[in-house]
Amino acid sequence: MALALNHVSVIATDLEASRRFYVDELGLEPLPTPNFGFPVVWLRAGDCQLHLFERPGTPPSHAHFALEITEFMPIYRRLKELGALDHVTFGNAMYELPDGGIQMYARDPAGNLVELDHRDASTIPRDEVPEYMSLADV
User: Fold this and answer.
1) What is the distance between the alpha carbons of residues 115 and 47, in angstroms, rounded to a whole number?
2) In the predicted model, is pLDDT for residue 65 greater than 90?
3) pLDDT for residue 91 is more than 90
């Protein structure tokens, strides 16, 4: 029986650009990474890890992983500034969920889809977030 998720691995077509995105924009922590014979970066996300592999390939269109974020607006503003919000894959870049949380979708530099979850949608100033949409309204 599986006890917990250990890590997720994603393609990084430009390893340094992807590392900067996850560390500088989303706050993941770099970890010591073994030598696999090809470029790899390990990052800590809470109790789990994200592994970036510099490999050729195209990320899948809808497959994604989710990170829980503690502060929504700084990350939202920065991802919007970077043009990283994904408005297409699920019809909108974000949705308020029935439980009062919100999920926001973005693409990393390699095109991987990342869901960013924030537990309290009531803290978001909706007049500053034109992408805001309630899933109940869809």
Assistant:
1) 17
2) yes
3) yes
Q: How far apart are CA 129 and CA 132, in angstroms?
A: 6
Q: How confident is the model at residue 67 (pLDDT cuts 50, 70, 90)?
A: very high
3-state secondary structure of 122: helix
CA dihedral 126, 24, 49, 32 (to 10 degrees): -170
Could you give the C-alpha distances from 40 to 2, 25, 55, 72, 123, in angstroms and in order?
Answer: 25, 19, 9, 29, 37
Q: DSSP letter string over 78-108?
A: HHHHHT-B-SSTTSSSEEE-TTS-EEEEEE-
User: Which residue, among 107, 104, 124, has the nearest Cα to 115 in the 3D structure?
Assistant: 104
How does DSSP classify residue 61? S
pTM tops 0.90, yes or no: yes
